[in-house]
Amino acid sequence: MKLKFSRIGLMGKPNNPEVKSTFHTLIEYLNTLKLSLVVEASCAPLVDDLNIPSAPDDKLASQCDLIIVVGGDGSLLKAARAIVPFGVPVVGVNRGRKGFLTDITPQAVAQELTPILQGNYLEENRFLLESYILRDSKKVYSHIALNDVVLYSGHVARMIEFEAFIDDAFVYRQRSDGLIVSTPTGSTAYALSGGGPIVHPGLEAMVLVPMHPHTLSARPIVVASSVEIRIHITEENQLNPRLSWDGQVHADLNPNDEIIFKRHDKVLKLLHPNNYDYYHTLRGKLGWHI
After folding, report:
1. Cβ neighbours of residue 148 under 8 Å, at least 6 residues apart?
2. Is 155 a residue whose pLDDT tops 80?
3. Do 173 and 212 meet the contact criterion of CB atoms below 8 Å apart?
4. Which member of 75, 150, 192, 203 lies 3.0 to 4.6 Å from 244 by CB, making a disulfide possible if both were Cys?
5. Over the stretch 192-245, which tens digit does the pLDDT of each residue have?
C-alpha cells in the first residue's frame, strides 16, 4: 500500500475511556502500516503501555505530516490552535457529541482512514480569527480561535456597554450580555445558539452576533473576512468583562480597553473522507427532517 503520510501525530481528550479505547484501536491499525507515531504529551497516559514517544501540543506538529484528533469538536478546536502555525493537515475521529469537525466514525477507523492515508480525501481550508486586547494603546494579550471569540460580562445577569467599529467606521453602541465574533466554522456553534446564521465554511466571512441585546433592533451582521473589527469597552462600565477564544482560553478586560478582531494569516487544513457532504452533516447534527 502506497501512503502519502508517514509520521502521524495523535491528539485527543485526556482521561476519557472512549478516547483511550479508540486510541488503542487506531494505534494497532497504524502499526500494521508501519507508520511512525507520536502522541500528545497530555494523552500519553492513555497509551503508556504501548511505548509510543510523546511531545507537547505546541511541538507535536513539527514532528508530523498528519495529525489525527480523537474526541469531539472541543478537542479539535484545542488541537487546531497548536497545529495551525505548522501547516500540518488534521483529521478528526469523533468521540464527542455533535462532531461537526470530527467526522471519522470510531467503529470504522481502518475503513475510513485508509483512503485518506493513501491521499484520497477532500481538503478544506478553514480560516481562524486572531484577536488582541489593547490597553492604553499597548497590546497586552492575543490569541487565535477556530470557532469564535466572545466578549461577555463575566457576571450573571449583568450587561456591558461597548462600541463596535468595522474598518474604523462606527457601527453601533450597544448594551448587551456581550458579542460573539464567529468564523464560518463557528457559525454552527455558540453563534447559532445566539440566533446567528449558518455560514458555509467556503465563504470568506465573519459574523457578529449580539448576546441578549437591550434593543429589539439588534441583529447579527455578516461581514467580509478581510475587514478589521474593533470593539471599545466604554468607560461607563462598572464591571470588568472577559474575552474568550473558542470557549477555552480567557482574558480579563478593563473599561476603556479595545479588542481588535481580524482574520488570522494561516489556515487549518481539515481533511475529510471523499464522501463528505456538508449538508448531510447539517441534517444529521441539527436533526433536520428529510
Report:
1. 129, 180, 181, 182, 183, 186, 189, 190, 191, 246, 247
2. no
3. no
4. 150
5. 999 999 999 999 999 999 999 998 889 999 999 999 999 999 998 888 899 999
| Phi, psi (rounded to 5 degrees) for 71 | 155, -155
Contact 169, 153 (CB under 8 A): no
Cell of 26: 487506531
151: left (phi > 0), else alpha (psi -120 to 50), else beta?
Answer: beta
pLDDT at 289 over 80: no
CB 181 within 8 A of CB 208: yes
Tell me the CA distances in angstroms from 196 to 145, 158, 189, 250, one per residue in order: 18, 22, 9, 22
Hey, what domains does the chain have and what are their CATH numbers? 7-121+273-286 (3.40.50.10330), 130-265 (2.60.200.30)
Q: Closest Cα partner for 99 from 283, 281, 287, 288?
A: 281
Sequence-ordered list of residues with C-beta below 8 angstroms from that of 117, at least 6 positions apart, any chain: 3, 4, 5, 33, 35, 66
* DSSP β-bridge partners for residue 232: 163, 258
> CA 70, CA 109: separation in Å to the nearest integer?
11
Active site residue ranges? 73
How many Cα neighbours within 13 Å face the side chain of 228?
A: 10
CB 146 within 8 A of CB 155: no
pLDDT tens profile 128-145: 999 999 999 999 999 999
